[in-house]
Q: What sequence folds into this?
């Protein structure tokens, strides 16, 4: 199994450009998440989804949109990128079972100039 | 209010020595799970160990053990016989029902560990 796959791994954008980060999981997990990681800030939740067709805001949702049209995919969109969105983005998935850990993708390093 | 607290500054540990990373948590839910993750300089998040709130024994996974003190609400990670490859950031996380309906994890800000030869 591939687990959680994120694409792309790296991306450089100019201010104002848009892009979509793709996350795919092959474990049939119900829940999916997008985090950003910045130095000294730990992991901060952007948006999450508790099932196909549902999404919800996390701690830092401004400037991002998400969609979960299929259970296995969770897309994160930046409509108009800003330098403050320079970060490492992690996708993760979680099954319902209580003692299961969060499964992470390998991250996307995004730089906005 | 912060649910997971990791306050230690960056730590240096001698190779082959043991190191303890502190984690305290806050929840009113009797049922919860505690997790530790490792993030090496390559960036990936690696799951290390899990402790359930009703588990009678402290969790162990190879050189990793979790010192779970429920009354004190602490879940410290102990790494025995440190290796150079243990140099990384370590994150404590909790999953409970009280705030998130059992579908989210709260993360601490992490502990940086550097193992020196």
A:
């Amino acid at each position: 199994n591939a687990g959680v796959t994120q694409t792309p791994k790296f991306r450089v954008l100019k201010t104002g450009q848009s892009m979509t980060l793709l996350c795919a999981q092959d474990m049939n997990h119900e829940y999916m998440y997008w985090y950003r990681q910045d130095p000294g800030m730990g992991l901060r939740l952007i948006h999450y989804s508790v099932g196909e067709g549902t999404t919800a805001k996390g701690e830092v949702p401004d400037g991002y949109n998400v969609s979960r049209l299929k259970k296995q995919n969770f897309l994160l969109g930046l409509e108009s990128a800003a330098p403050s969105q320079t970060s490492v983005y992690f996708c993760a998935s979680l099954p319902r079972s209580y003692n299961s850990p969060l499964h992470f993708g390998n991250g996307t390093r995004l730089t906005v100039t | 209010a912060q649910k997971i607290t990791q306050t230690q500054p960056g730590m240096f540990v001698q190779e082959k020595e043991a190191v303890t990373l502190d984690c305290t948590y806050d929840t009113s839910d009797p049922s919860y799970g505690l997790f530790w993750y490792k993030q090496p300089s390559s960036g990936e998040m690696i799951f290390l160990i899990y402790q359930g709130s009703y588990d009678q024994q402290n969790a162990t996974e190879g050189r990793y053990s979790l010192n779970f003190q429920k009354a004190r609400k602490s879940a410290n990670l102990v790494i025995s016989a440190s290796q150079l490859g243990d140099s990384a950031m370590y994150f404590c996380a909790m999953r409970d029902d009280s705030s998130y309906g059992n579908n989210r994890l709260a993360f601490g800000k992490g502990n940086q560990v550097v193992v020196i030869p």
